[in-house]
Specification:
With 281 residues, this protein is α/β, with parallel strands linked by helices. The chain folds into two domains: 4-147, Rossmann fold; 151-274, 2-Layer Sandwich (Hypothetical Protein Tm841, Chain: A,domain 3). 39% of the residues lie in helices and 25% in strands. It contains ten helices and 13 strands. It has helices at residues 15-20, 61-75, 92-100, 117-131, 136-149, 160-165, 170-177, 201-216, 231-244, 258-264, and strands at residues 4-8, 24-26, 29-32, 35-38, 55-57, 80-84, 107-111, 151-155, 182-188, 191-198, 221-227, 248-255, 269-274. The strands form three sheets. Strands 10-9-8-13-11-12 form a six-stranded mixed β-sheet, with helices on both faces. The longest helix has 16 residues, at 201-216. The protein starts with a strand and ends in a 7-residue tail after the last strand. The relative contact order is 0.16.
Length: 281
């Protein structure tokens, strides 16, 4: 069997695509009032996204160990590559490293340095390399290259959710809240930081699209749009990107899962630009 690719539920990949490429997902968690919900496994009420006191947590060591054990067995000696969200945004990567150490090098863990579809695209790059018959270390290297070059941005209506979860700096909070300015955030070396500020959300979206088109240029790229309860806006953003970027190899629009939605809030829309995906089967 080819190298097995494992990721976590922050990847936002549509189930049919993850299944087609054999990508296995370990759940992240939403916690409220003593109830622990596993993302993509348990039914998580939509209302929890905006409920005060809701928290999230990374993949558990037990779930990671279970996933790795099965993946190593199924790989039949070809090994496992695990792609997880940024170590600076979640405990999942560090827990995965500890779990991987038990398999004497059979499992290699990639820090995607991002979150959302950027994780998903990186996992897909690894899965496509595995499908081509590449050995484990080559699959790992393909994922690391994608993680180092992928660009991810998001517009949020406000910074209250990110402030509450500690996912953005105090300076970013101050700048984002001043005069109702709408922020564009991006990931830099695994951290979520303020990229630009606009007076309205529509202007922030337009500037994010402009930035994505500049990043893409004329090279072949994969384009992802993700959203929290804003399907129509996400579709409009994708249509604009496809009309302006000359060489879109792969395009995906997907909702943010409950875990990420808790942090960014209703109405958030993000864009991801990757570089090495080939057309999806």
């Amino acid at each position: 069997m080819p190298v097995v690719v494992v990721t976590d539920s922050s990847c936002c990949l549509p189930p049919e695509i993850a299944e087609a490429y054999g990508i296995r997902q370990v759940p992240l968690h939403v916690v409220h009032d003593g109830q622990d919900y596993r993302e993509n496994i348990d039914e998580i009420p939509d209302r929890l996204i905006a409920t005060p006191g809701v928290t999230t947590s990374g993949a558990t060591p037990a779930d990671l160990e279970k996933a790795f054990a099965k993946a190593v067995k199924d790989a039949k000696g070809d090994g496992v590559v695990a792609v997880h969200m940024s170590r600076k945004l979640s405990s999942t990567w560090s827990a995965a490293r500890v779990a991987a150490d038990k398999y004497d090098g059979a499992v290699r863990v990639v820090d995607s340095r991002s979150v959302g579809l950027a994780v998903g695209f990186t996992a897909l790059v690894a899965a496509q390399a595995a499908a081509r018959g590449e050995e484990r270390d080559r699959v790992y290297e393909a994922a690391v290259r994608e993680a180092a070059t992928i660009e991810s941005m998001i517009c949020v209506s406000d910074l209250d959710h990110l402030r509450a979860s500690g996912r953005i700096s105090a300076a970013g909070r101050m700048l984002g809240s001043a005069l109702s300015i709408k922020p564009i955030l991006h990931t830099v070396d695994g951290s979520l930081t303020l990229k630009e500020r606009q007076r309205t959300f529509s202007k922030a979206l337009a500037k994010m699209v402009d930035s994505a088109c500049e990043i893409a240029g004329s090279r072949p790229v994969s384009v992802g749009v993700q959203h929290c309860g804003a399907q129509d806006v996400a579709d409009e953003v994708m249509a604009e990107l496809r009309s302006r970027i000359p060489d879109v190899v792969v395009s995906l629009t997907a909702p943010l899962g409950p875990v990420l939605s808790v942090h960014v809030g209703e109405g958030a829309v993000g864009v991801t630009i990757g570089s090495t995906l080939t057309p999806l089967d």
